[in-house]
Automatic annotation (TrEMBL):
Subcellular location(s) of the protein: Cytoplasm
Binding site for NAD(+): 158-160, 192, 221-226, 244, 279, 300-302, 347
Cofactor field: NAD(+)
Name of the coding gene: ahcY
UniProt KW keywords: Cytoplasm, Hydrolase, NAD, One-carbon metabolism
GO MF, any single term: hydrolase activity
Cofactor note: Binds 1 NAD(+) per subunit.
Entries under SUPFAM superfamilies matching the protein: Formate/glycerate dehydrogenase catalytic domain-like, NAD(P)-binding Rossmann-fold domains
Protein name: Adenosylhomocysteinase
Length: 425
C-alpha cells in the first residue's frame, strides 16, 4: 500500500512570534491606504476565485498586506521568501496564525532551503506567479515545463527580474505573458527612488552607526535606485561619487551635481560603497586592492553577486562578524574591508526595507497586475507587458486622495485643443 504524502502547511521560524507580527502588520497598514481600498474591493468582487497563486517576495509587513488583499480576493495563495535575509519572522508567523496564509520563509535560510521553498511553491501548481527576481519563473521554464500550460501569467517588480524575463523571451522559453510592474511610473519613480534611497541608508546606519556627513559615498549605478541613494546621501552630508557604464546616465549624474568616474578611480576615494546596478562583480579584486582601510561595502541590487565576495573571501586571512550584519574581512596587506548584509540587499538584511507609504503603490501595482492577467486570460501574447496607463494613473489618483491633495482637471476647451491638429496658436 502506498503511503500518503502530507504536504507541509508552512515553514517559519516560530509561530509564537505571531502577536508581535500582527501588531507590526497593522502598524504598516496605517500608511497603505491605496492597497486597503483595493483590498476592500477585492473582498467584494472576488476576482481571484478559483485561482492558485504563489508570491515570491520579501516577507515584510508591507508584503503581508498584498498577501491579505489577494486572499480576500479569493486567491488560493502561498508566500515564499525572495531573499534569505529579508524575511521578518514575526510577520511570517502572523500571516500563518492570524490570516491563514501558508508561508515558507525563515530569515537566514540557506540556499538549499530557499530552492526547496521555490519547489514547494511550484508544487501548488500556480496559475499566477508574483515574482521578485524571476527565480520562480526561471525554475518553472527550466525544470517544470509540464506546468506551463497551467500558467495565466506572471508579474515582476525588479529590474533584475525584467532583464531575466526578456532574456527568457529572447531565448523562446517564455511562452506566457509577464506584467512589467517594475517600470510602472507609480513603482519606479517612488519605490526605487524614494524607497531604495531612504531604506539603503537606513540599513547602512543601523548596521554600522556611522556618521555619513563628511564621508565619501560611492554609488555604482545611476538608475532610479542609484539616483535615490545618491540624493539621500547628499542630503545627509556625504560627498557622493557616481560610477556608470551608460553615457546618458553619467551625464545626468554630472548635471545633478555629482562627481562621475570609473570604479577603479573611485575605489581609492570612497569610505562607503553601494552597488545598485543589477549586474555582477561591479566591485572586484582590483577595486578591493586600492580601497582604504575600513572601507564599507554593501549592495542594494536584487542579487548578492554585485560584489565579488568569493574573491574577497579567498584573499582574507580572517572573516569575523563585528556587529550584526557587519563582517570584517582582514587582508594580508594589513587593512580590512567591511561588508554589510553578506552582500545581499542591505535595506532588508540590516533594516526593514522600504517605508510602507512607498510600498503601498508598488503592491497596488502588483495586485492590479494580477487582476489584469485574470481579466485578460488567453488574450495576452507571451512576453513582457506594461502596466496599462489608466491603471498607473488610478493608483496615483488614489494615493493623492488619501493624502487629501487635489489637482486640476482639463476644461472642455483644453481637451478640444489637445485633440485638435488645426487649432494653431
Amino acid at each position: 500500500m502506498t503511503a500518503t504524502v502530507t504536504k507541509p502547511q508552512y515553514e517559519i521560524k516560530d509561530i509564537a512570534l505571531a502577536p508581535q507580527g500582527k501588531q507590526r502588520i497593522e502598524w504598516a497598514g496605517r500608511e497603505m491606504p491605496v492597497l486597503r481600498q483595493i483590498q476592500e474591493r477585492f473582498a467584494q468582487e472576488k476576482p481571484f476565485a478559483g485561482i492558485r497563486l504563489i508570491a515570491c517576495c520579501h516577507v515584510t509587513t508591507e508584503t503581508a498586506h498584498l498577501a491579505i488583499a489577494l486572499k480576500n480576493g479569493g486567491a488560493d495563495a502561498i508566500l515564499i521568501a525572495s531573499n534569505p535575509l529579508s524575511t521578518q519572522d514575526d510577520v511570517a508567523a502572523s500571516l500563518v496564525a492570524d490570516y491563514g496564509i501558508p508561508v515558507f520563509a525563515i530569515k537566514g535560510e540557506d540556499n538549499d532551503t530557499y530552492h526547496r521553498h521555490v519547489n514547494i511553491a511550484l508544487d501548488h501548481h500556480p496559475n499566477i506567479i508574483i515574482d521578485d527576481g524571476s527565480d520562480v519563473t526561471a525554475t518553472l521554464v527550466a525544470q517544470r515545463q509540464d506546468q506551463i500550460s497551467e500558467i495565466i501569467g506572471t508579474t515582476e517588480e525588479t529590474t533584475t527580474g525584467i532583464v531575466r524575463l526578456q532574456a527568457m523571451f529572447n531565448d523562446g522559453v517564455l511562452s506566457f505573458p509577464a506584467m512589467n510592474v517594475n517600470d510602472a511610473d507609480t513603482k519606479h519613480f517612488f519605490d526605487n527612488r524614494y524607497g531604495t534611497g531612504q531604506s539603503t541608508l537606513d540599513g547602512i546606519i543601523r548596521a554600522t552607526n556611522i556618521l555619513l556627513a563628511g564621508k565619501t559615498l560611492v554609488v555604482a549605478g545611476y538608475g532610479w535606485c542609484g539616483k535615490g541613494v545618491a540624493l539621500r546621501g547628499r542630503g545627509m552630508g556625504a560627498n557622493v561619487i557616481v560610477t556608470e557604464i551608460d553615457p546618458t546616465r553619467a551625464i545626468e549624474a554630472v548635471m545633478d551635481g555629482f562627481r562621475v568616474m570609473p570604479m577603479i578611480e573611485a575605489a581609492s576615494l570612497g569610505d562607503v560603497f553601494v552597488t545598485v546596478t543589477g549586474n555582477k562583480h561591479v566591485i572586484r579584486p582590483e577595486h578591493f586592492a586600492v580601497m582604504k582601510d575600513g572601507a564599507i561595502v554593501c549592495n542594494s541590487g536584487h542579487f548578492d553577486i554585485e560584489i565579488d565576495l568569493k574573491s574577497l573571501g579567498a584573499q582574507a586571512n580572517e572573516v569575523k562578524e563585528v556587529r550584526n550584519f557587519t563582517q570584517q574581512y582582514s587582508l594580508p596587506s594589513g587593512k580590512s574591508i567591511i561588508v554589510l548584509g553578506e552582500g545581499r540587499l542591505v535595506n532588508l538584511a540590516a533594516a526593514e526595507g522600504h517605508p510602507s507609504a512607498v510600498m503601498d503603490m508598488s503592491f497596488a501595482n502588483q495586485a492590479l497586475a494580477c487582476e489584469y492577467l485574470v481579466k485578460n486570460k488567453g488574450s495576452l501574447a507571451p512576453g513582457l507587458h506594461s502596466i496599462p496607463t489608466e491603471v498607473d494613473r488610478e493608483i496615483a489618483r488614489l494615493k493623492l486622495n488619501a493624502m487629501n491633495i487635489q489637482i486640476d482637471s482639463l476644461t472642455p476647451e483644453q481637451i478640444e485643443y489637445l485633440n485638435s491638429w488645426n487649432a494653431g496658436t
